Amino acid sequence: MGMRSAPYLGGLNPAQRDAVETLQGPVLMLAGAGTGKTKALTTRIVHLMNTGMARPNEILAVTFTNKAAREMKMRVGGMLGEMVEGMPWLGTFHSLCVKILRRHAELVGLKSNFTILDTDDQIRLMKQLIRAEGIDEKRWPPRLLAGMIDGWKNRAWTPEHVTAGEDGFDGKGQKLYAQYQARLITLNAVDFGDLLLHVVMIFQKHDDILRRYQSWFKYILVDEYQDTNVAQYMWLRLLASEHKNICCVGDDDQSIYGWRGAEVGNILRFEKDFEGAKVIRLEQNYRSTPHILGAASGVIAGNTTRLGKTLWTDRTDGEKVRLIGHWDGEEEARWIGEEIENFQRGTRGLDPISLDHMAILVRASHQMRSFEDRFLTIGLPYRVIGGPRFYERLEIRDAMAYFRVAVSPDDGLAFERIVNTPKRGIGDKAQQTINQVARDNGVSLLEASRILVEQGGLSAKARKELGTLVAGFDRWSAALRDETVSHVELAQVILDECGYTAFWQNDKTPEAPGRLENLKELVKALEEFENLQGFLEHVSLIMENDATDATEKVSIMTLHAAKGLEFPVVFLPGWEDGLFPSQRSMDESGQKGVEEERRLAYVGITRAEEHCTISFAANRRVYGQWQSQMPSRFIDELPAKHVEVLTPPGLYGGMGAGNDYSSGLTERVSNADAYASPGWKRMQERTSSRGLSQPKKTSSLVIDAKVVSSFGIGDRVHHSALGFGAVIGVEGDKLSIVFENGGAKKVVASFVTAADD
Ligand code: ATP
Ligand code: MG
């Protein structure tokens, strides 16, 4: 009835309309970024309800994040208006499974009010089991086992499925897995992996229940299908096997969760698994300008394992993807801050753009810190999406609590936080005693601890450990007072001596390296302050600023969290080998790791609608040491005709206050000129005058007893095929060169000659 003329269908192209209107049977929408897959999926939900094909609760729609689910709900609601009562089952795999599992909890031995454990609880439980088994937890850290079990759950393996060959835990994994599951049941608890695993098991063992859901969900829709893991895939197949009305949308080029068990094979196998599947390809991109699309396509073309697809846009407008190299990470943050303000004001003849429409997408969360600090300094409102802001992270708060006690020993709140972190056998009972003594004597917790250490009143173990901690704080506070070491060194010493660094080093889970990186980043942040106290004040002011809520904010998030989103203005900083692609992916044998990183680069560029700026720094400071960086290999892969190389700010007289770098942007000078310029040299001088070490000139650098290169950063060179350029990085005998024709390339030193101009 009036369905041909339904207004929501009007804005779709024929392929999208096909996807919306093919309601019977399996449908796979396989298409590149920004082609309107999510839009078509959302419209399909509306269409199902509007045509009366399904009541709202007969539709099951799966999104990748809760944020995406909320947005889809809003759009569906908006399109439907007052027409239909109720909403479909719309959520993430996890949220949908919680709903189902609560109804049938008793079938797996749980009560319907089961709790969902977080990672910390999970690890604590694992630790108990490992200890009970008398296993050496140094060699076999609880987190390693927890990670392995997660992996098994992603594959829908119960303990019985685990074969000896898969058991990397010295053969003990399977038994511990079984014990762990049994413990969870007695605790009336599940972990995240269980949500899917239990439901899949219930479906497999209880045919009557499975049939009920199968006939219930007449229509199933899945967004971001390329990132489903095996357990999720099994869940979908079981549910879809009666009506077979399953519509999945995805893009093999955007599969970025392989490290978490996602199987891009699911999408490639779709036609086999769902007989008679209709595959719909969308080719028109509605999101991005031709240059942005061209740059993204150029990069992803470097992957060998892909289906390959055509993408086009009928837009003709837009500026090129901008590429800029910076002297170091701080300058990159400073420049991006100013650029954001320029976009906000309206610059280069552009209309003003709201901060809500701008995003910075980073590869690693530790990159966020320099942006957060910079934006706080200049008062630029921002939000961090998909994770706590830097100073709110667990490991940062722990570390800061140590610093706080060292600076002000009376800080009882901070002391309480770390007295048993990392765990050192000062349990609840001992902590109660400390509190009691503090209250009775009217002294701080640290002083109360000292009294207990000296006079007894605790278990021998707690007394000994507390003695060590108190002595530590005495030592650190004295070092701080007498300035025997710099506050930066001291911070590192504190973290090392208290056992906190080792705690994360022994931790073999995927998030541990990130936490260690964040701790390094914290110590690095200290360098910008006179002393620890000044730093702590800065952070407490930051935290207070939090409360003031401005309506418009720049978004900062990881590339992973940006999937499915779009912004008119996107900044992609830190495109340097080792950071992006990550060192881990480069160390992996074969191309698999780097190909996943390249898909991440594709996801990043394709988030941009109008303006995309990629940047890299020649130097990053790691542990107070300058480390010279090579531009990312992905930069080499950006097609030159879609890229404009910008002049780095140093050309215009360094980083003095009030410098308007944006003026440099309109001049379109080649990067190579900039690096060979007096401005670049000035930056180098300024850096050395700050007393900081900087990357060595390689002229005297000897590696393996052979001189590797006579070129240094800032040198102007000539390459017979690539023309003139400037050296912006040196690594052994390889030079990173920005060429005047636009591209940045890595070249073996013997292929270039010095150029004097
Ligand atoms: P991704 O792969 O990044 O998730 P996608 O394929 O899901 O992208 P959408 O987010 O659905 O793409 O659409 C991208 C943009 O294009 C959105 O702003 C959407 O509103 C717009 N769009 C989609 N289809 C059309 C159309 N037929 N006409 C005009 N605009 C469209
Ligand atoms: Mg999408």
Structural features, described:
With 757 residues, the chain is an alpha/beta fold. Strands 9, 10, 11, 12, 13, 14, 15 and 16 form an 8-stranded mixed sheet that branches. A 6-stranded parallel sheet has the order 3-2-6-7-1-8, sandwiched between helices. A hairpin with a 4-residue loop joins strand 21 (734-739) and strand 22. Helix 17 packs across helix 18 (412-418). It is globular. The N and C termini lie far apart (75 Å). Residues 651-708 have low confidence and may be disordered. Adenosine-5'-triphosphate binds next to helix 3. Magnesium ion (MG) is lined by residues 37-38, 223, 564. Residues 10-289 form the UvrD-like helicase ATP-binding domain. This is DNA 3'-5' helicase. Residues 290-564 form the UvrD-like helicase C-terminal domain.
